[in-house]
TrEMBL record:
Domain NAD(P)-binding residues, every copy: 9-227
Organism of origin: Lasiosphaeria hispida
Record-linked InterPro entries: NAD(P)-bd_dom, NAD(P)-bd_dom_sf, Polyketide_Oxido-like
The protein's name in its UniProt record: NAD(P)-binding domain-containing protein
Family: Belongs to the avfA family.
Amino acid sequence: MPKTILFLGATGGCVLSTLRRSLAAGHTCIALCRTPSSLLSKLTPAEQAAVHISQGNAHDAAALRAALSDPSVPPHTLVDYVISGIGNPVTKEGVLHPDVDVCRKGMEVLLEVVAGLRGEGFTGRVRVLGISSTGVSDFGRDIPIAMIPLYKVMLHVPHKDKKGMEDLLVASGEEWTVVRPSWLTNGEGGVTDVRAGMEDPERKEVVTKAVGYTISREDVGKWIFENVVEEVDGKWVKRIASLTY
């Protein structure tokens, strides 16, 4: 069944990979972008024609409000999915002057807007997926021992932000999924099989464990499409997935 999906951070590799697959499958795809040309330059002409671009910032409540309304059905209906991969850009400015609260703040605004729209009579289920990172689990180690110093030194600040985002989702009462990729790489995916560990934060337990070093952004997006967008059994609802090779 066709779905309506709002993408946040769609110019990033993981979310872009999911967006392109969702467009190819015939889903209605909305992308909230600060600079639409940055996304359009990465899409084919057919993809450009199919995607609905909404210009704005993921921290802007008014922009989110406009993007959360499903354009394919009668008014006052929410989108089916929100897939968020927002974070600091991998640029000189993003590295030297990061927004240390970008993920948590974005999720806070999103959830507040969804709650507000429901209060105004908007209907529809919203499944929210947030892309986080391995190394932030409360229930077990999901990174190799050799990478612990690197994660602790280099990624302490962004990981605190990612964990804040996760905590908001878990406590939200919405349907949600968190995806924690291991160290992200560029390039084509499909080189090797993706392994997925599962955590259940409500039961405070690791259901299945997957520990590894890397995974490509392309394969993260493919996994999200196949296991969340196209999901039929609800396996990953209110669950955390750790993805690695």
